[in-house]
Design goal:
The complex is a heterodimer. Chain A is an all-alpha fold. Chain A is 75% helix and 0% strand. In chain A, helix 4 packs across helix 15, helix 9 packs across helix 10 and helix 10 packs across helix 13. Chain A is flat, with a radius of gyration of 29 Å. By secondary structure, chain B is α/β, with parallel strands linked by helices. Chain B is 34% helix and 25% strand. Chain B contains 11 helices and 10 strands. In chain B, helix 5 packs across helix 7 and helix 7 runs parallel beside helix 8. Chain B is globular, with a radius of gyration of 18 Å. Classes of the chains: A mainly alpha, B alpha/beta. At the A-B interface, helix 11 and helix 12 of A face helix 2, helix 4 and helix 7 of B.
Chain lengths: 367, 259
Amino acid sequence: MTSATLSRRKSQLTKGRLPRYAVWVVLAAAVVLAAAVSALVGFSIVTWAVFAAVFFVVGATLVTATVEGGRKATDSLATYLVYGCFLLALLPLLSVIWTVLERGLPGISYDFLFTSMNGVTGAVDNSAAENGTPVLGGAYHAVIGTLQITLWATLISVPVGLLAAIYLIEYGTGGPLTRAITFFVDVMTGIPSIVAGLFAAALFGLLFGPGTRTGFVAAVALSVLMIPVVVRSTEEMLKIVPNELREASYALGVRKWRTIMKVVIPTAISGIASGVTLAIARVIGETAPILVTAGFASAINWNVFSGWMSTLPTFIYYQILTPTSPTNIDASTQRAWAAALLLILMVMLLNLVARFVARMFAPKTSR
Amino acid sequence: MSKRIDVKDLNVYYSKFLAVEDVNINIEARSVTAFIGPSGCGKSTFLRTLNRMHEVIPGARVEGEVLLDGDNLYDAAVDPVTVRSQIGMVFQRPNPFPTMSIRDNVLAGVKLNNRRISKSDADALVEKSLQGANLWNEVKDRLGRPGSGLSGGQQQRLCIARAIAVSPQVILMDEPCSALDPISTLAIEDLINELKNEYTVVIVTHNMQQAARVSDKTAFFNIAGTGKPGKLIEYGETAAIFSKPAEKATEDYVSGRFG
């Protein structure tokens, strides 16, 4: 048998294969068929999309099964289901972003960003609605409150959380203290945020008299929520620092504390930084603990140690629940959506900063 | 600068488990001593007791004496950090600090201890250490690059440079070539031969040819069975250990008829 005869014979190793365009043909057919079927039951975009998805998955699986065999068919079925779940999971996210952008963007203006609600009454809103003039009043005081309270909460939580994690990983020997800390951190993770708020309110009530409400009390409440997140994420990051690096440092005659500060922490810093950011993002949107600890203010207050403060979440909450003008609630609704957009932007900005920080500190591996 | 090590009646424990039993050995200054023996016989454990790296592991402790030029390392008043700055160590896997450049890796022993050093002194120390580790010509143009970007053999020589930059008396090497190719291994073996002029070198190796090539004296460790402690079976001139060992077990091991 020569090689010429061999090459002419059909290979025994290959099976039927669908051409590349087959999947697009099936998709087009599914979309057309779904349009027809949904027209029968009463056309809407949703039914059309659902029918198209179902027809495509069934059709593509059947076509693959007939041409390529059962194993490939199972593979493509699972692939399409996973893609489907991904799209499904993406829908709420896109919907939230779209809704907030659509309703919040009209409310964003220089005035909204840089004025407070001080002096803005129902009468002001009513006249704005009647004369068609721009809505007055803004969230400046709430932005300041959010930044201040979150900053102070971070200042409290990061040192405590970081040091607790360092103790657990570097010094803890599995003794009773280590186990107790781990246990209480776990318990703290599960504390409902309103309970944290009540705790801080009660604590400061005991220390400085009942009804003490300042931004700092809110910061303490938020740090109760933040600390366990910081401890947990830092712990995980310190765990994955290779022991060889610690030993290399010890072998150079470097003390343990210095080894931790100069070798272990720098190696893990990018992970720690993103853990801290996640913890901040977790508390920046809290509403309930702020209400019971910082109260609510409509004027600018820079001082976290005295006077009530409001944050973006409490601002949104009050604008929706008790509109400034009960007869013309549109102005308040607009302000609430604009504040929501602002909050999302702040959290996104924070995430970007964390990524940047992480990249800046990350161990360098390029040649 | 190099000191001798004398070990007297040393027992090494992991919690209650006796890992190495009753070792007596005298290691000359400015010589290369190789530890050979099967896996799990306690060579590395014993090596780590020589600069108190052993006690980094929780529950690990020793009984007996290790004398560095007559001073007992395990005296209650001795700070392990002082011991480790006099007795350097190179590990099995190259472990340069990933956050530091090549230059900073060499200077790690100085900088991590917050010792002040002028830029010209630092430059001189970097060059001297890298020359000493036969790495200078390969990296002199990229000292600012990360150390983890080097090849495995270069990383290991960087670790040796890092160890000699703190000018120790003794350098311990725990299978320094086991992760390296033959060419990098040759480079490290040449380096060990040069290091011997200034330092006391102790090396653990699984490669008997390597022990025969680089060492002046060889110690053979063995273990009677799993769960039993490792013991020093025979210690002597390398030539004698490999040609006419006194013990039957040593002969079986070096000639490949193990067990």
